Each structure stands twice: as structure tokens, then as C-alpha cells.
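Minutes, project check-in
Item: structure for the 82-residue chain
Input as provided by the requester:
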Amino acid sequence: MPNKVGFHLLDNSGQVLQTSTRTGTRSQSVRLDLNEGNYYVQVFSTNPRSQAYQLRLFKEELWCGCGDEPSRSRSTARSLFA
């Protein structure tokens, strides 16, 4: 049987933020804008014999390219459309 692996992305309280849309042997990804904090990936298998998978996590820093942007949080950010 082929590996049928999926995942949940959870926040620090264990709430599921995103679930993979398919299980199977093909690559899966999720892209979210998240606030600073702790997040967890829960990998699951629909096949009890499935054991091998490869997990890669990437973090992208967003940079506005504005030399005058002093804030690093939503609460102190100013609107770009004002």
C-alpha cells in the first residue's frame, strides 16, 4: 500500500489552523500569514504501515521595502493605504 500521510498545523493551544487537503505520496504544502508564536505540525497516516515521510518547514520574513517602517507587529503598524 502507498504511504498516505497528511498533516495538521496547530496553534499553541492545540487548535487546528490548517489541514492538508490531500493525503498521498505527492508533495503537500500550506502557506499562511501567522503571528509570532509557537506552532506545531501533527503528521498522521491513514495507513498503519506507513512510517516514512519527509518534513520541511520554511519561514519567510515579509519585508515591505519601506525604509520608514518602524513596526514589527500589527498593533503598531500603520496602514499603507492611508
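Outcome recorded: DSSP finds no helices and three strands in the chain.
No further action items on this chain.
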